[in-house]
Every structure is written in structure tokens, then in C-alpha cells.
Amino acid sequence: RQEQYRALRAVDPVTKDGREINLQMNAGLLVDLPHLNESGASGIGLFRTELQFMIASTMPKAEEQEAFYRNVLKHAGGRPVTFRTLDIGGDKVVPYFRAAEEENPALGWRAIRLSLDRPGLLRTQLRAMLRAAAGNDLRLMLPMVTEVSELKEVRDLLQKEIQRQSKLGEQLPKKLQFGAMLEVPALLWQLDELMAEVDFVSVGSNDLFQFAMAVDRGNARVSDRFDTLGRPFLRILRDIVRAGERNDTSVTLCGEMASKPISAMALLGIGFRSVSMSPAAIGPVKSMLLSLDAGKLESLLMPALDDLKPTVSIRRILTDFAAENG
Ligand code: PEP
Ligand code: MG
Predict the structure, then answer these.
(1) Mean pLDDT, consecutive 10-residue segments, the chain of 326 residues?
(2) Residues with CB under 6 A from ligand 1
(3) Whole-prediction pTM value?
(4) Which of 92, 93, 101, 208 has the alpha carbon at shortest distance from 146?
(5) 287 and 5 in contact (C-beta within 8 Å)?
(6) What residues pack around ion ligand 2 (CB closer than 5 A)?
(7) CB neighbours of 22 closer than 8 A, spacing ≥ 6?
(8) Where, by residue number, does the polypeptide cross the bilayer (predicted)?
(9) How far is the CA of 216 from the centre of ligand 2 (A)?
């Protein structure tokens, strides 16, 4: 199997009916980077910058952050890297950054909320990214966005950092793309405003599922209770894909869902053309999509999602489809 997947490394990810799919990998540390070549991923769709902070015993200094990002870009060798700004708080604990105890940490002071309340921390990180990507492409995205106005606040800070760099005569990134993670359900009713504000959107299905279904992602008692391949969640994801098409905004999904061939298949069936996953999943997912007739699956799945009196689960429809179509 491993050998088989390795052989697929250089094969373009195109479905049987000719849809080109962008397969990227998730990463967070330098040890992840060799997987880029091994897996044949086209880039890093999610770089979790908080990992550098989580493994350190003290806050990484500005220069350390910059050197780290520079190193990541160097290893990526021109393939796109999407850096996510700090996503700490919630399930991601940074020992030296102690906030008050929270009763609902997942809903608490975390990610972009914390960054906006500690603009010094965010500006240091933005500056480190701008400097590391001088002369190159920089893609950055914000975690846990709830309102589009938060993005505007970050953009203002980013603009200040860009001006500062220019004033100092420093080289800037050649191209800068700005994106948001879609993890908070409130954004589902701001899709058009959101997409007008960003260059790309990436669905964090782990958190979006947790918040949409009101199940703690870390609580084994409830985390498997509802199906990510059930109608409610797939309808949500389909709405996001449609909004992306309507607004001509690129949409990726970078949660765990993309790593399982059956759910990746469902994602392609509802119209996703770009996914980012753990490196080990690239081979199996590519192998699945090479033999997938995405159009055929789509014409089966779309009406099934709209079925008002369903008798079969979507998961069942998917596994039957997979069995019948190899
Ligand atoms: C997600 O929420 O799906 C996601 C990709 O981010 P993380 O798992 O780091 O919260
Ligand atoms: Mg998340």
C-alpha cells in the first residue's frame, strides 16, 4: 500500500471525469516539511503557527518567529504556504501564556479574539511573516473569525506593518493574500461580505462541526454522536462552496474530514476542489479521487441532500457508491 501511494506522488490529482483537485497538507513544525516531497502535496494549506509557541518554554522572540517562517518557506521551495496566525486558547494551551480559567474555553478568549486584544503580539507575528516572505508570496489567514469587522481590524494592523517596513526601506512580499478560516457558524450568514473581504476562505471543519452541532470536539462521550457526513453538516458545507462560486473566491477545507477518503469523497461530491489534510492522508485520498467520477457522485448526492423525508443516510449512499464504483 505504502509503495502504491508513493508511486502516486508524481501523478496529478485529477478525478476520472477530469476535475483537477488541489491537494495540500497541514503542518506546524519543521519536522513536517519533508512530507511535502514525500506526499506530493501541492503546498501547505494550513500552517498552524501556534505549534512553535506550544513547544517553547518562553514566548518565541520576533527574530525567532521570523527565522522559523523563513525556514518553512525555504523548505517549501516555492510551493504555497498558508500561515495561520496564532490560534491559542481553547484546546491549544501555551503554558507561559496564562489566561484566567474559563468555563467554556472553546467559546472563550482565543485565536483572533486574543490577537485583537493583544495587538502587540499580533503585530510582531505579522511583521515576522512580512519579513520572512520578503520578495516572495505570503498567504496569511485568521482563525476563529466571527464577524467580518474583525478581519478589517487585522487588515488595518497589517497595513501599519507594511507601511513600517516600507519606511524602513525593507523589501515586502511580492504578493500578499489574505484569508479567513470559517469555523464559527455566525459567518455562514455573512458569506458574501466575508468573501468580498478576503482572497480565500478555508473551512476549519473540526471547529465548525463542534460549534454547528454543539458537541465538544475533545469529549469522546459526545464527539462521535453526530455524523460529519450527515445532512445538516453537508448542507452547511455545500452552502459555503456555492458562496465561493458566486463570489469567485477560492474555498478550501482543512479539517480532519479531508483526511478520510470517504469524507474527502463526499467533499468532492458537493463541489470542493481544494482540500488540505494530514500528510499521511494524501496518498489514500489521491488514490480515491483518481478513480472517482465526481460528476456522477454529485448528481447522486445533491438531490439526496435535499431529500425532505430521507430513508437512507448520506454515509450509506457514499459507501454504496464507493463499493459500486470501485
Ligand atoms: C479546524 O478547526 O478544523 C482546524 C483546521 O483548525 P484546528 O484543528 O487547528 O482547530
Ligand atoms: Mg480550528
Answers:
(1) 84 97 97 95 98 94 98 97 94 80 91 96 98 98 98 98 97 98 98 98 97 93 94 98 98 97 98 98 97 97 97 98 90
(2) 46, 48, 87, 183, 204-207, 254-255
(3) 0.97
(4) 208
(5) yes
(6) 183, 204, 207
(7) 13, 42, 252, 273, 274, 275
(8) none
(9) 12
Residue 204 CA to ligand 2 center (angstroms) comes to 5
Alpha helices, DSSP H, located in 77-186 = 111-117, 119-132, 148-167
ipTM above 0.95 for this complex: yes
Helix, strand, coil share of the chain (percent; to 5):
50, 15, 35
- Of 69, 112, 68, 122, the closest CA to residue 89 belongs to 112
Asked if residue 59 lies in contact with residue 53, where contact means CB atoms within 8 angstroms, the answer is: yes
User: For 259-295, b where at least 16 C-beta lie within 10 A, e where not — what string?
Assistant: bbbebbbbbbbbbbbbbbbebebbbbbbbbbeebbbe
Contact 223, 271 (CB under 8 A): no
Distance, CA of 109 to CA of 98 (rounded, Å): 11
Distance CA 278, CA 280 (A): 6
